[in-house]
Design goal:
There is one protein chain. The chain is an all-alpha fold. The protein has 2 domains: 186 residues, MFS general substrate transporter like domains (Growth Hormone, Chain: A, Up-down Bundle), CATH 1.20.1250.20; 212 residues, Growth Hormone, Chain: A. Helices cover 78% and strands 0% of the residues. It contains 19 helices and no strands. α4 packs antiparallel against α17. It is globular, with a radius of gyration of 21 Å.
Length: 419
């Protein structure tokens, strides 16, 4: 079935050379990250024999990015975004080369891995802020959909592929391959993306700490922007079933082989939902669907109260992943377009930091609840929370759509910058 002639197609988006360069750079970064996480886990566990230290190292591939999201993403507004991406890639390549050196003390490995994680947010913020300049109009949302499908597919295949590769190569060599992916990513960005001046001109450029606070003020400058930010955070809170997959399958009477299938449900749903949404839903209808899609993400989780088996749960989580990923996609796209360009990277960095925080908080709360009421009931509770939390956000977003305040966001956000 072909897309209607008035809709932007994937082929049209991939026909833009700058987007291809950004897409390939991100694909390489994701592949390298997944491979590095598997290699680091093997290296640390082999060297220490400690599951705790292995888990700590794995956490360091994510946790410092929270600080990077707050303090470093504004660099992509103060300097050329292409330059920020290239410099970050080169720094990450150098750090990973050092991690690949044999016989490093464990604390040095932790510092280096943490530094790589710290640098991830400014790269992503610069890329996200560049995309509206590379992809105009509806091409931007379709391009975001392509990114979403790429990320989910890469994560779905990454760990399995990384594990298979490490059966054939030494973990130190795998880390060297990771460093090479960052170098290739830098080359794609440097030679495939046009040079553009910094978004924040010299007159608009603020001090480092003022820059950080400005991003927060812009994000909360209107009910419409607040709703969009909170929608993205809510979508990070809901997929609790990923964090409690093992006890969930065990409680349902399934074996370990079903844990992987349950973990694959959300990414599979994301790819399917994003494909359908970007290909067949009219562009003008997409922002109106943010609230309904957020609620639909939570509804399948309510079945958890009936103590469903693993096969039915997998189907439900595919549905939840499809609706949730599309809601997150459109909320992020709408927020990106709504904020002024000179603050876009900082604002989106803070939004993504909140999303990442929710992705970490969700399994923590889910684990505590699971010990009290069981995994299936925990999923049901999160479903209720999702529906309840969506209601006030839906009201705020509906009011902004019907009163036309969403069209005035661009005027309100710059005023917040000077507040």
């Amino acid at each position: 079935m072909a897309a209607p002639p008035d809709r932007v197609t994937f082929r049209e988006v991939f026909g833009i050379a700058e987007f291809r360069a950004l897409w390939l750079a991100e694909l390489l970064s994701i592949a390298g990250d997944q491979l590095a996480r598997v290699a680091l886990s093997i290296l640390v566990f082999t060297a220490t024999g400690s599951a705790t230290l292995t888990g700590l190292t794995y956490a360091l591939t994510f946790a410092p990015s929270l600080l990077g999201g707050i303090f470093l993403t504004g660099l992509a507004d103060r300097f050329s975004r292409r330059t920020v991406m290239v410099v970050v890639d080169l720094l990450r390549a150098g750090l990973i080369v050092l991690v690949a050196l044999p016989a490093l003390p464990f604390w040095v490995v932790c510092v280096l891995v943490g530094a790589v994680s710290l640098l991830n947010p400014p790269f992503k913020a610069a890329q996200l802020a560049l995309l509206p300049q590379v992809l105009e109009g509806d091409r931007f949302v379709v391009g975001m959909g392509v990114r979403s499908m790429t990320v989910q597919s890469a994560q779905l295949l990454g760990f399995a592929g990384g594990g298979a590769l490490l059966l054939a190569v030494d973990p130190h060599l795998a880390l060297a391959i990771d460093a090479a992916t960052f170098l290739l990513s830098a080359a794609f960005v440097r030679f495939g993306v046009q040079a553009r001046p910094p978004a924040a001109s010299a007159e608009k450029r603020k001090s480092f700490f003022a820059m950080i606070s400005t991003g927060g003020r812009v994000a909360w400058s209107s009910p419409a922007l607040r709703a969009l930010v909170l929608f993205t955070w809510l979508m990070g809170l809901l997929p609790v079933y990923e964090g409690i997959a093992a006890p969930y399958v065990s409680a349902a009477g399934g074996g370990p082989e079903l844990v992987g299938l349950l973990l694959a449900a959300d990414p599979v749903g994301s790819v399917i939902g994003t494909f359908v949404f970007t290909r067949w839903v009219p562009a003008q209808a997409r922002p109106k669907l943010i609230a309904p899609l957020s609620a639909l993400c939570a509804v399948p989780m309510l079945v958890g109260f009936t103590q469903p088996g693993t096969p039915l749960s997998i189907v439900l989580f595919v549905l939840s992943g499809a609706f949730g990923s599309v809601a997150l996609l459109q909320a992020t796209a709408s927020l990106t377009l709504a904020v002024p360009d000179e603050n876009r990277a900082q604002t989106m960095g803070l939004s993504n930091t909140g999303l990442t925080t929710m992705l970490g908080v969700s399994p923590l709360i889910g684990g505590l609840l699971t010990d009290l009421v069981g995994p299936q009931t925990t999923v049901g509770i999160f479903g209720v929370a999702g529906v309840v939390l969506t209601l006030p956000l839906a009201v705020a977003w509906h009011r902004s759509m019907t009163t036309g305040t969403t069209s005035r966001v661009d005027n309100e956000a710059p005023r917040a910058e000077h507040a």
